[in-house]
């Protein structure tokens, strides 16, 4: 298989000093992009030259665009000049990442691929609207939240399933689902200590679903202070819930790979490294005080 260089190719589009200095950016979707590249590369004889690399690159850029827009806060109130700049840069950066896929595919004459990705973006945005409505009405549980978030992380990549070799399509979809789940759980883990970032995230719905009426009323109010949030995280073992699901997902990936005679697990180990590293590292559990 030829070398995987999509992250290096993406740098010219995602690494800008102004953006990096003044706002936070989402992580590059490396595991899903690498997975897509691997399966398209296996079907390289059916694709034109470097299409595997091109499709993996543009899909990662669109995903970066959607993820960047998801980081834009929707809170009301006065913001500092720095906060305003950060917010504006997220809007512009997300639009820019999303627009580059049109240009790259149009220059390559891959109009059908533009349609595939555009349709997938519409599906994701429609799904997010429904999810946000459920959040606003507090008609959601942790499992429903996680299922939808995983869907949003795999929808763009699934749009190229027809280009995966027919005999690989089932395992491709299984692995994509599990890697999207791992990426989602790592993202949720990164929010765990701060009530503002965790609000309406997996841990929020885990606690809300297990909490009593008073705790639910506290969570459904205008906000939860850091100390109260820490107590709830500890009481309902919300961090353990994330790590347990991540551990199970990694185990499932290895089982899927070991059951497939055409897929050696060795080439996927580097894709599992970030998840295994988190599971193996000591965790500074959120505690009271």
Automatic annotation (TrEMBL):
<protein>
    <submittedName>
        <fullName>Heptaprenyl diphosphate synthase</fullName>
        <ecNumber>2.5.1.30</ecNumber>
    </submittedName>
</protein>
<dbReference type="InterPro" id="IPR009920">
    <property type="entry name" value="HEPPP_synth_su1"/>
</dbReference>
<keyword id="KW-0808">Transferase</keyword>
<dbReference type="Pfam" id="PF07307">
    <property type="entry name" value="HEPPP_synt_1"/>
</dbReference>
<dbReference type="GO" id="GO:0000010">
    <property type="term" value="F:heptaprenyl diphosphate synthase activity"/>
</dbReference>
